[in-house]
Amino acid sequence: MTVVDAVRAPSRVFPVLRLALVGLWVVWAAAAWWVAPRAATFERAEADAAADRVVSYQWADSFGDANGSLLWFTAVPFTYSGDAAPQVFIWRTGFGRVHYAQVPAGDPRSGYSLDGVPTEPGQLQPIQPGSDFSVVSPPTRSDDLARLLPTDRQGNPVPYFPPVLATILALLCLAILIQGPAPKLGTRWFWFFLGGLPFGLGMLLWLRVERPWAEPVSPAPDKKTGQPKRYSGLTGLGLMFLTGIVISILVALLRSLPEWLVPSALP
């Protein structure tokens, strides 16, 4: 039975289908919270690399959170051009845990002179007149870390499972919204735009109050047309932006909670 056949089936199918969709959302929420990148120190990255606990890693120029993404089911964005020294190190350890740390800027190891000859900390080798030497950048802690990491483990450390599952869930709901019974409270465009709310909250609202999952009271008829006055797509677009701003503010307030509870980057 296809999704289209399911939404056209008798009403007894809808409660089961709704439970399945809510169950998928719960699985996504738990997985997204578990693998969400959490801020850590560069010392922890060095310790994990030295103990061979790094499963996958990536260097990046910038690292953002999903609050800056357009859709709630997109992956956490990060970029790396390779043209300059990386600013962020992202790595995954066992059980899918992802961490990130700022790369220390201008933090060379002590014990190196301009020509790369080891010295004691705070000392420089004297340069003899007429001697040949080249200015060598002193090794940094990021260089040391890179030497500890196998090159075959370099790649995207953020698991693909949560965004892929969220995309499948969003497509299923979109198919039901298009092929299923016409909504009563708002138009299809209204619920389409609300589906873009962070964390899939618009989808949960649709599953709670709208057809085919529920039978809401018909809205009052329009005075001009006499037809039920449903919320329009423009209303849904406005609510998506306004509610998204409110949710972003609430998430920002929750940043004061421990990192393990509220990750810095929420998918």
Report what the structure shows.
Keywords: Membrane, Transmembrane, Transmembrane helix. The chain crosses the membrane at residues 16-36, 160-178, 190-209, 231-254. It is built from 8 helices and 6 strands. The protein has helices at 3-7, 13-35, 42-50, 141-148, 161-179, 188-194, 201-209, 233-254, and strands at residues 38-39, 56-60, 62-63, 78-79, 88-92, 98-102. 38% of the residues lie in helices and 8% in strands. With 267 residues, the protein is an alpha+beta fold. Mean pLDDT is 80; it is low at 109-127. The protein has a domain at 3-33 and 161-254. The radius of gyration is 26 Å and the shape is elongated.
Characteristic key phrases:
38% helix, four-stranded mixed sheet, 267 residues, 8 helices, elongated, membrane, single chain, alpha+beta, transmembrane helix, transmembrane
Please sum up the structure shown.
This protein is of the alpha+beta class.
Q: For the largest beta sheet, what order do the strands appear in spatially?
A: 1-6-5-2
State the share of residues found in helices, binned by percent.
25-40%
Supply the number of helical segments: 8
Strand fraction equals 5-15%
Question: What's the SSE pattern?
Answer: HHEHEEEEEHHHHH
Instruction: Assign an overall shape.
Output: elongated
Number of strands: 6
Mean pLDDT: 80
**What class would the helix/strand composition place it in?**
alpha+beta
Instruction: Let me know the largest β-sheet.
Output: 4 strands, mixed
Radius of gyration: 26 Å
What ranges have pLDDT less than 50 throughout 5 or more consecutive residues? Answer: 109-127
What's the end-to-end separation, in Å? 32 Å
Keywords: Membrane, Transmembrane, Transmembrane helix
